[in-house]
């Protein structure tokens, strides 16, 4: 039996094997993609919650001068949490989280005294929030 005859007689088996391999490959890729999206989505939601809580601390510390609920030192907890979650996110979220960390580090002590410090932190919060929301919108 020649190679051509063997291919003809086993064409269905060869075709079935090709379909099975391509189906398996697609399923593996889709599962990996879905898991990456799930991880990104969960990290994004956690970041948005922490960003909101941090913004609340900012407003209470600067505008209300509420030493209990607006203690600027508690902002460190949120900024570090945001920074940690950003590690699982695609660009530009990690860079925005780093910028927020730097802004908080440089300006938190001026809250309640200097409008420029509150504005710098608020701008960094908005930049990070925008990057997170844009990432969520881009998920497929």
Give an overview of the whole structure.
- It is built from five helices and no strands.
- The protein is mainly alpha-helical and 140 residues long.
- α2 packs antiparallel against α3 (75-86), α2 packs antiparallel against α5 and α4 (93-107) packs antiparallel against α5 (115-138).
- It is rod-shaped and about 90 Å long.
Number of strands: 0
End-to-end separation: 50 Å
As for the number of domains, it is: 1
Helix content: over 70%
Structural category is mainly alpha
Main beta sheet, described? none
Query: How much of the residues is beta strand, in percent?
Result: under 5%
**What general outline do the C-alpha atoms trace?**
rod-shaped
| Poorly predicted runs of 5 or more residues | none
Query: Order of SSEs, N→C?
Result: HHHHH
Topology:
Layout: H1 3-9, H2 11-64, H3 75-86, H4 93-107, H5 115-138
Helix pairs in contact: 2-3, 2-5, 3-4, 4-5
Write a brief structural summary.
This protein has 140 residues and is an all-alpha fold. It is built from 5 helices and no strands.
Relevant terms:
mainly alpha, 0% strand, 140 residues, single chain, 5 helices, rod-shaped
């Amino acid at each position: 039996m020649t190679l051509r005859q063997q291919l003809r007689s086993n064409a269905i088996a060869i075709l079935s094997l090709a379909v099975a391999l391509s189906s398996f490959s697609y399923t593996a890729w889709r599962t990996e993609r879905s898991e990456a999206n799930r991880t990104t989505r969960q990290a994004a939601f956690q970041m948005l919650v922490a960003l909101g809580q941090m913004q609340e601390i900012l407003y209470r510390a600067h505008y209300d001068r509420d030493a209990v609920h607006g203690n600027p030192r508690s902002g460190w907890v949120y900024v570090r949490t945001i920074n940690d979650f950003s590690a699982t996110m695609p660009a530009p979220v990690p860079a925005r989280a780093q910028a927020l960390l730097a802004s908080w580090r440089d300006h938190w002590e001026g809250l309640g005294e200097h409008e420029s410090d509150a504005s710098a932190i608020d701008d960094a919060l908005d930049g990070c929030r925008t990057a997170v929301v844009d990432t969520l919108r881009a998920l497929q």
